[in-house]
Amino acid sequence: MSDVPSRWTPATIYPDMWVDPAHDPRNTDGVSPDGELETLLDMLRDYRLTLLMKCDGLDAEQLARRSVPPSTMSLLGLLRHLAETERDWRTWLGGPSLDKLYGPHDADFDGAVGDPAVVDAAYRDLEREQLATDAALAALPDLGERVGSDRIAVRELHVHRIDEYARHAGHADLLRECVDGRVGQ
Questions:
Q1: pTM confidence score
Q2: Alpha-carbon distance values, 181 to 55, 67, 104, 145 (Å)
Q3: CB-based contacts of 99-105 (< 8 A; 24+ apart in sequence)
Q4: Which long-range contacts (CB under 8 A, 24 or more apart) does 125-129 make?
Q5: How many CB atoms lie within 10 A of CB 31?
Q6: How far apart are alpha carbons 50 and 105 in whole angstroms?
Q7: Which region holds residue 119: left if phi is over 0, alpha if psi is between -120 and 50, else beta?
Q8: ∠ Cα 91 155 165 (to 5°)
Q9: I want to staple 58 with a disulfide (CB 3.0 to 4.6 A). Which of 62, 89, 129, 172 is the partner?
Q10: Which residues contact 66 (CB under 8 A, 6 or more apart)?
Q11: For 76-99, what is each residue's pLDDT tens digit?
Q12: Average pLDDT of the chain?
């Protein structure tokens, strides 16, 4: 008996997909969004959904399972990390410095333990922080406007958010495959 799970996907049309196109919430009617801001928000939405899809169907222990020692990375840790990151981005906009959700550096990953209450809190935290950051950015429709003490362009912050979620969606691919063998984009 092997400790390595067999690779699998429920997709039947394209074997490298997470789900069949008809069941993929990232699929739209095939029309690209109009405008730069709409395109950026569409990409962010897709990467956020990808992360949630990679976590779907797992229990608390599976979500908290670490990748490879000495890394503390887990799917649950990614949820917590991104909640913390969303919160931090609001300070980039010039907002007040906010207390860390989980404690000092790496507490988002270190505290990601297989407890259903921790999992529930992580999902609530992520949703709340995403909504707050989305609302703060919605008040800044000029992508060229420079904000915060570093005078970052609003466009750059949107791109940075996409980059952060895209990187972690890649981590989530590997983490999920290690947990139960499920693969796909």
A1: 0.94
A2: 13, 13, 33, 44
A3: 101/125, 101/129
A4: 125/79, 125/80, 125/83, 125/101, 126/79, 126/80, 126/82, 126/83, 126/86, 128/83, 129/83, 129/84, 129/86, 129/87, 129/101
A5: 6
A6: 26
A7: alpha
A8: 70
A9: 62
A10: 72, 73, 74
A11: 999 999 999 999 999 999 988 899
A12: 93
Q: 137: Cβ–Cβ under 8 A, 6 or more apart, which residues?
A: 93, 154, 157, 158
* Those residues with Cβ within 8 angstroms of residue 134's Cβ, 6 or more apart along the chain or in another chain: none
Q: Which amino acid is at 83?
A: A
Token pair in block for residue 133: 């950051």
Contact predicate 82/112, CB 8 Å = no
Find out whether 162 and 47 touch, Cβ atoms under 8 Å: yes
Above pLDDT 70, what percent of the chain? 99
Instruction: Kindly report, residue by residue over 15-65, the tens digit of the pLDDT.
Output: 888 888 888 888 877 778 899 999 999 999 999 999 999 999 999 999 999
Residue for token pair 């984009």: 185
